[in-house]
Amino acid sequence: MNTRMNALSSAPVRVLIIEDMGMFRELLTRWLADWKRYEVVGAVPSGEEALALIAKTRPDVFIVDQQLPGMDGLEFVRMARQIRPEARALVLSSMDDPLTLTRVRESGVEGYLEKDATPEQLAEALGAVADGRLFYSARFNETLAREGAKTQAIGKILSRREQEVLTHVLAGKTSREAGELIGLSARTVEFHRANVMAKLGAANLAELVSNARRMELR
Q1: pTM of the entire structure?
Q2: What CATH number is attached to the domain comprising 71?
């Protein structure tokens, strides 16, 4: 019995990487290969491909990019946990606006780190998530402590999809570009954008951006 428990406790942490940038995905895979503690069981560019691997690879931890083609990282985590609820998630992102960070926090993922973090910070974040602890970067906590209350109020006004569309609009994406990232048609993105504008009292895109700046969402 003790021998079996020791074997289980020494088993490597199974990691599934979901990252659409090929070079970054390869760097993560090679970096993790140097750690005896971790075993990369898959590395794919989209949430859809990752979902198809979960039952076979049984990952313990997802390292997932927030900005993915099709479903974004948070949507992937939500769907992945229907297949493997015990898996934990570390989200990597280049987006640090309070609206996105509020979505991350409300999603219930165990970790968040910026993509410009150092290898040492990534090791700390991954180790914490693998150990069953939470890890949110200092920048994440500082941003939400400073601006999160206003963004939470917006979350009560806009649906999850509308918040997602607003994030891409404020990042300067066209409806077509936003649709490709979210996995929606440009027409559907424009429908959501119109709803956002109505709810935030904006008559046009310039007013939407202006109102967002006034509300410190950008």
Answers
A1: 0.70
A2: 3.40.50.2300
